[in-house]
Every structure is written in structure tokens, then in C-alpha cells.
Amino acid sequence: MIYIGLTGWGDHEDLYTGGVRPHEKLYTYGSHFPTVEVDSSFYAVQSTRNYEKRVQDTPSSFRFIVKAYQGITGHQRGEDSFASKEEMFSAFVDSIRPLVDAGKLAFVLCQFPPWFDCKKENVCYLRFCKEQLGDLPAALEFRHQSWFTTAYRQQTLNFMKEEGWIHGICDEPQAGEGSVPTVLEVTNPQAALVRFHGRNVKGWMDPGDGSWRDVRYLYRYSLDELQEWVAWIRELEQHAKDVYLIFNNNSGGDAAANAKQLIELLEIEYTGLTPRQLDLF
Question: What is the pTM of this model?
Fold first, then answer.
């Protein structure tokens, strides 16, 4: 099955009309898309109560991609509240148990930062991560070009296959070593993941003043750009049971519209979504 969705559900205002309140947004989101990427889990390990509510707010067929906590992927700056890496992983895994028990966890997404390059020390850490996550399905996304250079590309893909990682395929600007090419390779037959970050080359670069946060994902895919993905997605379908397509190009509020365009191009009609409320007039 092809699952198309967005990163987060709170900021896509074009989905919410008629005065939808914040606590109702996930319920409403589920009437548009069958999956979502949870990004709040990156900033803090969430309470199980939060995930229990998310289970209640979504239909039985809905699937969550949970972004790994920043301490796991090395984005954390400064002191961490956990006594050890093992304790941190344990807390994270325990927190998402409601999703696992409800059959609503697609997988954990481990997105590593641009400074996480291809070297033995980091390969060992990836093995440690997979071990700590236990039997949870997990996707791996790189942001450093070295993993896919000619010298290491096949080794990287073979490693992901051997360790059972789901390959986090990226559509993103090609802006030097802090970005990766689009590598259309499935490494786990259970699932494939494509994350659409936009193609804003200038915005992708960090000028050092923090403004990149507002423009990095400022991009609207053209119909032609989405159309070229149709054949690639059909190819991924041949090698993975499920294909997840997540739009992250929302600095300008473009993600939802692009996701719906792709649904149309792929001629998908989802069933089992949250019933939509009809307007009175």
C-alpha cells in the first residue's frame, strides 16, 4: 500500500476550516491522509498518555512514523536528562508502546544530522541504535553526502539491508556535503520511505544567523516534478510491501497541497479515513 502524509499535523492550516480547535486537528487530519510523521518526539520523549490519545483520535488503519528523539540521533546540544544512552533509548521505546500495541506504528525514523559522516565510529553507533530499538521497525535517513559517494554507496546500502534498516530516501536540494542524492533503493522488503524536503538550494544552506529555519523547506513542487516521481514510486512498490511518502516542504504551507496532488497523480482513493464533517451550507 502507498501511504501519503505530512510531517506533523498542527501547522497545515489549509486542512482546517470552520474553527477546528488544536486538540481536534489530528482527528481532522485523519480525514485527509492515512499517515503522519510525529515530529514532537524529536524535541522531547513524549508521555504514553500523548500516544494513547493519538491512537484514540485516528482510525484503525492510520499509521504513525515517529521521529527519533534528538539525543538518539546526536542533534542534542548541552546536557541531557538521561543518565545513559541505554536509559534514553528505553524511555523512548516505552513511550511509543501505545502505538505498537494498537498496530499503528509504521516505524521509527532516525534522521541523522549533516555532521554524522560515513566513518567506522558512526557505523558502530548505528548498530548500537538498531540493537537498542529491539524489534521496532526503523528507518534511517542521512544528511551527509559521504554515505552515498561512489566509494561507499553500495556498502551503505548493503549495511542497511543486513541490519534491517528501512531506507529513508530523500528528495532534497543538492547543496554540497550537507545533502544526499535521491537513491532509489529499497533495503527492507516491509517498507520504503521517501521524504520530500523541497528543492530550495539557497534556503538549504545555513547562513549562520538561524534564518534557515524559516526558508529551508520553503518550496512548492510543480506538477511536472511530482509527475516524475510516479514511475519511481511504482518501482519502489515492486520491492516493498508498503511505501510511505511524506511531505516536509511546509515553510510556506505547501506540503498538504503537494501531497494531495500526488494522491491524484497516483489515482489513489483512500478508504478507512476519519469521516469528514459536512458543512451545513
Answer: 0.94
